[in-house]
Amino acid sequence: MAGATTGTETDVLRQSSVIVTSLAVAAALGLSACGGGDAEGSGSKTVRVTLANHVWTDNLKKALPEFEKQTGLKVEITQLGEDQLSDQYNVKLNAGSSDIDVMMYRPLQEGKLFAKNKYLADLTDKVKSNKDWNWGDFKSGPVQATTYENKVVGVPIITEQEVLYYRKDLLKKAGYTNPPKTLDELKSMAAKIKSQNPGVAGFVARTGKSPAVTQFSSFLYSFGGDFVDSNGKSAVNTPEAKQAYAFYGGLIKDLGPANVSTDMGWPEAMAIFTQGKAAFYTEANSLYKNATDPAKSKVSGTVGFAPFPAGPAGSKPYSIPSWALGVNDASNNKANAWKFIEWATSKQQTLENEKAGVPGGRTSVAEDPAATATYPKDLVEANAEMAKNGVGHDRPLVVKVAEAREIVGQPIVDAITGKDAGASADAANEKFQKFLDDENK
Questions:
Q1: 353: phi then psi, degrees, rounded to nearest 5
Q2: How far apart are CA 57 and CA 221, in angstroms?
Q3: CA pair distance 439, 42, nearest whole angstrom
Q4: The pLDDT of residue 66 is above 70
Q5: Do strands 102-105 and 151-152 pair parallel, antiparallel, or not at all (unpaired)?
Q6: Could you give the CA distance from residue 161 to residue 242 in angstroms, rounded to a whole number?
Q7: Each residue of 409-427: pLDDT tens digit?
Q8: What φ, ψ does residue 423 adopt, rounded to 5°?
Q9: What is the mean pLDDT of residues 136-144?
């Protein structure tokens, strides 16, 4: 999850174990359901797949015997925590190792690095070859993030968007019948509710320099800005960006919790909301169960969801793939690796994961009532609306993502603490441009 993120930052879905699973072949049948011919040769009958600890992975493993029976292939899964996954990729991909065929990776965290270093195979022809599989069914924002220099290098498997969480009871008490449709309405409604309810913040969100960047991004886009302009230059001190920094920081400074810290990620911000201490909260939709589960939330029965409010440039939330599947370009088994990806990202597998609360990459599944029957109705409606105009990144698209987030996140912290957001944005822009220049050498 992103945005929750991210990268995903949805640590709520992680598990701690490291498992290596080999699943045996049940039977050898044809490939009719997995698409066309094998121009690259059949390769090994064993497909080696490296996946992250995630609910998506656990769901997939339960269905693997079906794939093996259908194809006659054997799938060997290595399942790792995110840090261990990164360490393994760092070692094996740098060495040009061929013992990974399919890799689960974070498009917005390491996607540019992997693509630039040619670790990811070009899948452009493959995604277009099977009309029944239907590449056109995938959401546009996530597709942007798995495309590098006009080449498809990954298939989105887990997606997320930023949504507005709110307290229905507090809105009703204040005389409001609907959630805010614009950021200006959000600000005025948050101010009124805060004034009526001592000890309750009007608004809460992430405040940490790096964690806040992903959630701030939707504010930035909705004000008409971005981290980098169309010419690849730093854009964090444009008038639009300065307005976004000042607005986001001002919401928290003026309408946020008393004595708010500037090191909150999603767990801390979510805790304030679920303890009943805030009226509005902007966050990744993938984390919604933290707010609606009575075991985790004191306000579970009064939580509502709405599309991200519109700014001067409209409502432009991020719509991203927190995880994707790619093929190791050094693999000697690309054809069978692709057969696995086709199956793992099929409508049926995406539907099963969506039912389990893992939003996938397909528009048709997101619109299928069977996929979202257990989701709050207003969240389903908000997700559908935001998928139409979502932006495919929630952080700067660079190789050294962590360093970039530290730079562009500084004006957020400065705005929250009452410093001049415009001056901070100017300083960040100069530093970020130098960062971009160095990275592009």
A1: -70, -40
A2: 32
A3: 39
A4: yes
A5: unpaired
A6: 23
A7: 999 999 999 999 999 999 9
A8: -65, -40
A9: 93
Band (pLDDT 50/70/90 cuts) for residue 357 is: confident
pLDDT at 12 over 60: no
Q: Which two tokens stand for residue 149?
A: 């220099």
pLDDT for the residue numbered 2: 45
Question: Rounded CA gap, 388 and 319, in Å?
Answer: 9
| DSSP character string of 390-408 | -BS-SS--SSSHHHHHHHH
Place of tokens 């001592």: 198
Burial 256-288 (b: 16+ CB within 10 A, else e): bbeebebebbbebbbebbbebbbbbbbbbbbbb
**Rounded to whole angstroms, how far apart are CA atoms 227 and 441?**
19
Burial of 232 (0-12, 13-18, 19+ CB in 10 A): exposed
Please give the Cα distance from 57 to 77 (Å, whole number). Answer: 10
Q: Which of 13-17, 87-91, 301-305 has the highest mean pLDDT?
A: 301-305
Q: Single out the residue of 178, 272, 165, 247 nearest to residue 416, CA to CA.
A: 247
CA dist 240 → 147, 307, 312 (Å) = 27, 21, 9
Which residues are bridge partners to 368 per DSSP?
none
Domains and CATH numbers, the chain: 11-160+320-387 (3.40.190.10), 161-318+393-439 (3.40.190.10)
**Cα 320 to Cα 398: distance, rounded to the nearest angstrom:** 15
Q: Is the pLDDT of residue 5 over 60?
A: no
Q: Do the beta carbons of residue 207 and residue 416 sit within 8 Å? A: yes
C-alpha of 248 from chain center:
20
What is the 8-class DSSP label of residue 99?
S
Q: Which of 192, 243, 238, 189 is nearest to 216 (CA)?
A: 243
> Does the predicted model carry a pTM greater than 0.70?
yes
Q: Write down how long the chain is.
A: 441
In terms of phi and psi (left: phi > 0; alpha: psi -120 to 50; beta: otherwise), the region of 325 is beta
